[in-house]
Amino acid sequence: MISARIDPELRAALAIIGGVFPPTITPALVPFMRRSYASSPRERLLETFAVEVVDTAFRTFDGVEIPASVISPLGLESAADPRPAIVSFHSGGLMFGDRFSGMDPMLDMVERLGARLVTVDYRLAPEHPYPVPLEDCYAAWESVIDGADHLGIDRRRVILGGASAGGGLAAAVALLARERGGPRATGMLLDYPMLDDRCATASMTELEGIVVWDRVSNQTGWEAYLGERSGGEDVPWAAAPGRAPDLSELPPAYLDVGTVDVFHDETVAFAARLRRAGVPAELHVWPGAFHACDVFAPHTSIARAMIRARREWVRRVLFG
Known about the structure:
The protein has helices at residues 8-17, 30-36, 42-48, 104-113, 132-146, 148-151, 165-180, 202-205, 215-226, 264-276, 293-296, 301-319, and strands spanning 51-59, 65-73, 83-89, 116-120, 153-163, 187-191, 253-260, 281-290. It is an alpha/beta fold. It has a single domain, classed as 3-Layer(aba) Sandwich (Rossmann fold), CATH 3.40.50.1820. Strands 1-2-4-3-5-6-7-8 form an 8-stranded mixed sheet, sandwiched between helices. The longest helix is centred in the last third of the chain and has 19 residues, at 301-319. The N and C termini lie far apart (44 Å).
């Protein structure tokens, strides 16, 4: 029985989570998810974390200005003090969420490590299908590196990161930077990343209707992003990094995923392929953890362990 494989603390949290984030998301539920997965009011975030937020915007490939925020730890001597940074893209299945949705673990990292965080409101599918969300993220990445001095960022120490859909976008941005000769990240922080539109792994098919984000939800997200091409033969690797034939020359990576997560198999396979391609890849597989449990149940022992392990990797990569 699948539910018996879920960590007991997390199992107790599922009943509450289901009212906010149902396990099965169909296109009809996207308007609800855009309300329920919207971030908390800014004031509440600032009460919880010792950080300050400066809003900005980046111009995209088609001339649109997309909102972004630079989050810094309190107490810096100067706003221009060059700090290591994380450019992170939010979760939400490519269809919902905003630049603060699910970002609490990242804000905790800003507070504890003293890094800056840049987070972006990329445009969402289905209104803006591929390549718009990806190109928004890539434009933001280039803008951060090009404007590092103005933003108070040390361009030699910047990680690309994201969770779920944001993790897939971060991997795709790193691949595009390699192909286009763009700025190279210091590392990739890929939390249970959404990498492959084919939805064909064993872990993808065994969790329907049980935990956060099942196969139907995943198909809904990919179809919103790719339309009729989703799952077919002509999907470009930039849209779905799990399809990329060559993972060489990418930045060192940290990947994590739970054993009760539809993305378990594709995350483990991606980490193995990175290693075979000569890319240092640290993989953590968390027993009994379901998708995004660190966001929805951060009080649990396993969620706290996930957050600590990521923070330690970021500390090593950015601060030596």
